[in-house]
Amino acid sequence: MMKCLETNQVCSEQDKKCKNCKLDDCRKSLEILEEYEYKEEKRKIQKIVKQLPLKCQSCNMIRITNIQKERVYCPYMINNMCILK
Fold it and tell me: If you write DSSP's letter for every residue of 30-57 in order, what string do you get?
């Protein structure tokens, strides 16, 4: 049987991963973690968008390639200047 990583309780279901666990404590802690990660990722994306030039902030051509390194790709951006008018 597997133990919960947070509470060390033993899951009643054999060989189930935490996401499929029946323990309420397990599920609650996983939901909290997932919600925190989602909010953190959203905050990082907003930070990246704020650093872009004003024209590019609402552009739908921009793709975030790496959230951790704050890398953005746009086919119309050259030397941090948008060539679209």
Answer: HHHHHHHHHHHHHHHHHHHHHHS-HHHH
* Angstrom distance (rounded) from CA 76 to CA 62: 9
Per-residue pLDDT tens digits for 68-77: 898 888 888 8
Contact between residue 72 and residue 65 where contact means Cβ atoms under 8 Å apart: yes
Whole-number Å distance between alpha carbons of 13 and 34: 22
Residue with tokens 């133990």: 3
Q: What are 51's two structure tokens?
A: 């650093």
Distance between CA 19 and CA 14 in Å, rounded? 13
Banded model confidence at residue 39, pLDDT cuts 50, 70, 90: very high
